[in-house]
Amino acid sequence: MATQETLAAQRNDDSFDHIIDELKWRGLVALSTDEQSLREQLSLGAITYYCGFDPTAPSLHLGNLVQLLTMRRLQLAGHNPLALVGGATGLIGDPKPTAERTLNDRETVAAWVEKLANQTRRFLDYSGSNPARLVNNLDWTQNYSALDFLRDVGKHYRVGKMLSKDAVSARLNSDSGISYTEFSYQILQGLDFLELYRRYDCVMQTGGSDQWGNLTSGTDLIHRVEGKSVHLIATPLITNSDGKKFGKSEGNAIWLDGELTSPYAMYQFWLNTDDADVIDRLKVFTFLTRAEISRYEDFVRDEPFKREAQRRLALEVTELVHSKSDAEAARDASLALFGSGELAELKESALRGALAELPNIEVRTSISVVDALVATGLCESKSEARRAIAQGGVSVNKVKVDTEESEVTDSLGKNAAVLARGKKSLAGVFFVK
């Protein structure tokens, strides 16, 4: 029910005359096909559009969330989304810029298809007057013979143009080169658009701007085979402050699965957003209106030290990805650990979930503070730990440690304790039975 309640509360901003205007204001249009033609088609009535998600991991991540929210905004404008989970393309994977992908076995990919399909249900409405539909490209790909695929689809592709695609050219210029398998990925994605056009009258695809070469594969194929023009919208890449994109290929993925990225870790990630980025993040990742976001622009300009915009961003996105209760628990845990909140008021699950994201150790009953400081890495040696205690810089559960003989015990009754050196260096001690 929580998901349906969240979806039911979502609205587009009615201060915009057209959905394209809102998408552009939110920074969600990096590239598109003929914008005027697209505007007109979106204004004439409901269209069907799609976005694809390949099961190359057991969870969707932050980059996928950009696509899901773009799809949701279009759905709220009355259009019909198709969420494609690539049971076929996931067996291959799109070309990475630097190296060949490791191929996963069919059983693993099938299991990940189910996981990703279920995740889309949190962000798209599969009921109502214009429900989302889930599709799997394995349904139309698995019955193709190699000869039929080459004759019916491959003949419409020109190798010269395929070689010019950014992902392909990057790999051709790398030490690893590119296999025929990954070279053919763009043909499979083009076939997806053609099949969806034929089956569902799908006339638009959305995706990331780094996928533009694969996106245009479909529009080109439909034009060649059907003689029709269809549309694309590509969103910009969301990047870290150092210019690197978010994503599993960078080793810093923020996953939408709570087992891989906990609600607390999700909350802290957004809470740590730079002032320079936070307004853009509010536009992309929340359903706050232009007027509401303008207020947070004022907060960032006039009182940045209060971090009001970051707090709202963290709460909104954590609720969107997980639940309202998870978001509030993560907020309370963050306040209790790093602010004025009370540790004793936290639920045990919230405290333990937060501490699991910090350096931590497990003990049976108790442990000396000196040993705990070393074991958690807050101090490099026992002598350093004793000096830190003597200088008054160590606390357990926010109570200052006065002597080096002190122990860390389960004084909160939550099977966990918070060990701190200074205000920002924290660690967890878990008590196991």
From TrEMBL:
HAMAP family: Tyr_tRNA_synth_type1 (MF_02006). Belongs to the class-I aminoacyl-tRNA synthetase family. TyrS type 1 subfamily. This is Tyrosine--tRNA ligase. Its EC number is 6.1.1.1. Keywords: Aminoacyl-tRNA synthetase, ATP-binding, Cytoplasm, Ligase, Nucleotide-binding, Protein biosynthesis, RNA-binding. One of its GO terms (biological process) is tyrosyl-tRNA aminoacylation. Its main location: cytoplasm. Homodimer. It comes from Aquiluna borgnonia.
